[in-house]
Amino acid sequence: MAAKGGRLGGAGSACELPVTFDLAARWKPKAVAFEPDSDPDPVLDALAELAEQGTVQMVCEIDAKPAGHIGFLRVWRGAVSEDDPQAVLRAFVADDPQAGKAAYTQVRAGALAAAEVAYTGHSELLDEPKKQRAFAVKTPDGPVVVHLGGLDTEEHTAMLPAYELAKRSLTLG
């Protein structure tokens, strides 16, 4: 079980979200924002493209390096829609060119109904498969996806307690 290091999502936190959840100790959150630029820049355009996946856009990145791991929890948000959490996750995984075999389940994130996916990705750096996981919830302000990647499967497994802490402690607002 990961030691609690603070709460994320509320007003005044590093990333204001329609949900709040506990962070693992020493994990460092940072808001991510890509504003459309009237002056096209190929590098910025490529970065902005990476910040969108499926029907959601990355809004927060929680760095595990201060806790001794190589990876991130990333939080993604989408526009209000009728899509259920599993549909949001299916679009999220389908838009990942490195995604492989995926298994979807219905779960709880705190008291909220959620969907979760465990899937394989591909580490370009190590040229090997790696585990990834994400869960999604529906909020009145649109869907929220919390994704755990990692450098490789070993790092992913070591960071799972932080992901589980976020999922277990999630609340609206």
In summary, what is this structure?
With 173 residues, the chain is α+β, with helices and mostly antiparallel strands. The chain has three helices and eleven strands; from the N terminus they run E-E-E-H-E-E-E-H-E-E-E-E-H-E.
Provide keyphrases for this structure.
173 residues, alpha+beta, eight-stranded antiparallel sheet, three-stranded antiparallel sheet, 3 helices, 11 strands, 42% strand
Q: Output the radius of gyration.
A: 15 Å
- Percentage of β-strand residues: 35-45%
Q: Helix-strand pattern, N to C?
A: EEEHEEEHEEEEHE
List unreliable stretches of 5+ residues: none
Estimated helix fraction: 10-25%
Number of helices: 3
Name the structural class.
Answer: alpha+beta
How would the global form be characterised?
Answer: globular
> First CA to last CA: what distance?
24 Å
The largest sheet, given as strand count, sense and whether it forms a barrel, is: 8 strands, antiparallel
Mean pLDDT: 91
The total beta strand count reads 11
Describe what this molecule looks like in 3D.
The structure is a single chain. With 173 residues, this protein is α+β, with helices and mostly antiparallel strands. The strands form 2 sheets. Strands 3, 4, 5, 6, 7, 8, 9 and 10 form an 8-stranded antiparallel β-sheet that branches. A 3-stranded antiparallel β-sheet has the order 1-2-11. The chain is built from 3 helices and 11 strands, in the order E-E-E-H-E-E-E-H-E-E-E-E-H-E. The chain is globular. Helix content is 21%, strand content 42%. It has helices at 42-50, 85-94, 153-169; strands spanning 4-8, 19-24, 28-31, 52-53, 56-63, 72-78, 102-109, 112-123, 128-139, 142-148, 171-172.
